[in-house]
Write a structure and sequence with these properties.
The protein has 346 residues and is α/β, with parallel strands linked by helices. Helix content is 28%, strand content 21%. It is globular.
């Protein structure tokens, strides 16, 4: 199959049954930390004109026909697994193919680079577009657009036997910048801390963590980088002093690790799971469930949006990126998003 490509005027051609392109749509990026209800109000007008008031996938208009390549954030994996197969089942004229970079690891940032190179029709991103990405697109004669479709939270996990009540964001920063290197410094056992993270090059959730927690400082030399969350969880289960952060819907239900409550200050921790904590010995008969109330009210301090990112092109009528976002904003799409553990936009 021939790979998709682009020309100097910013037109994106996907040679795989269909021509795909995009038309203008302007969205704001939202502000983190003011409460998900407040954040969602910014998009109420825009979404009502697109997927918001559409009941199901079958009634989404202006859907391009053909096979389309997309890529991006690994945090989207649970959503892709549930939603994309149903979209294709109910709209057989549309075939979606998730692809990874030929070099390097998958992620939001690599996906956006592939989009600008003409290799993808749209990107699933776990962070808002940066000024640098907008500028890079402008230099190529392209315009990037983003549509928020769901809310995600980051959970921090440790070994099940590690006995600490939680961490402040300041303590988490000290761990990942190498200033705190033993759990004893935080009231835990005399264990060396081994922080795990996906590489900064993957973007998305890592970019959000660097911005929110590290405050744009560099990772400490003690941080061990892993290619996937699966690898990190495997390492964490065998490392009593390990710690890792990842998408809450992926982390919280796991049997081999313990999600930690977090707080902006030490006297008020908020758990990413519903209390009481389900012990590892009870899992998988019982699993921890997401603390959706804390996510919705932004009481939990690590919450962010998921975006569909695509290209704007005034010359074309059909746009698979916009259509894909509209699928997720339908009543059916929002119910499926909630089923995966993410929070749909209201």
């Amino acid at each position: 199959m021939e790979k998709p490509n682009s020309n100097s005027k910013g037109k994106l051609t996907l040679i795989a049954v269909a021509m795909v392109a995009f038309v203008p749509l302007v969205w704001s990026t939202g502000l983190i930390g003011k409460g998900i209800w407040q954040l969602s109000q910014q998009f109420r007008t825009q979404t009502s004109e697109n997927g918001k008031n559409i009941p199901d996938f079958a009634r989404v208009p202006n859907v391009a026909t053909g096979v389309f390549y997309y890529g991006g954030s690994t945090a989207w994996a649970p959503l892709r697994l549930v939603v994309d197969s149903i979209i294709q089942s109910e709209r057989p004229e549309l075939q979606l193919r998730y692809i990874q970079p030929q070099k390097g690891l998958p992620g939001s940032s690599p996906g956006i680079q592939m989009l600008l190179a003409g290799e993808l029709a749209f990107v699933q991103s776990s962070y808002p577009l940066t000024p640098e990405e907008y500028e890079l697109a402008r230099q190529k004669g392209l315009n990037l657009q983003q549509v928020p479709v769901a809310v995600n939270s980051i959970a921090v996990a440790v070994h099940p036997q590690l006995n600490i009540p939680g961490l402040t964001l300041e303590q988490l920063q000290a761990i990942y910048t190498g200033k705190i290197v033993n759990w004893r410094e935080l009231g835990g056992a005399d264990l060396e801390i081994t922080p795990y993270s996906r590489p900064p090059s993957t973007g998305g959730m890592v970019d959000f963590f660097i911005y929110k927690i590290l405050q744009n400082q560099e990772f400490g030399s003690n941080v061990e980088f892993v290619s996937t969350t699966t690898q990190a969880l495997r390492q964490l289960g065998n490392k009593p002093g390990g710690i890792y952060y990842g998408s809450a819907p992926t982390i919280v239900p796991q049997c081999t690790v313990k999600p930690l409550p977090l707080g902006r200050r030490g006297d008020k921790f908020v758990a990413p799971f519903q209390q009481p904590l389900v012990s590892a010995s009870e899992c998988p008969k019982r699993r921890n469930k997401l603390n959706l109330k804390a996510f919705l009210t932004a009481q939990y301090p690590l919450t962010h949006y998921l975006y569909v990112v695509f290209l704007q092109n005034e010359d074309d009528e059909l746009q698979i990126g916009k259509a894909y976002a509209n699928f997720l904003l339908t009543n059916q799409g929002r119910k499926l998003i909630a089923k995966t553990g993410f929070i749909p936009l209201d």
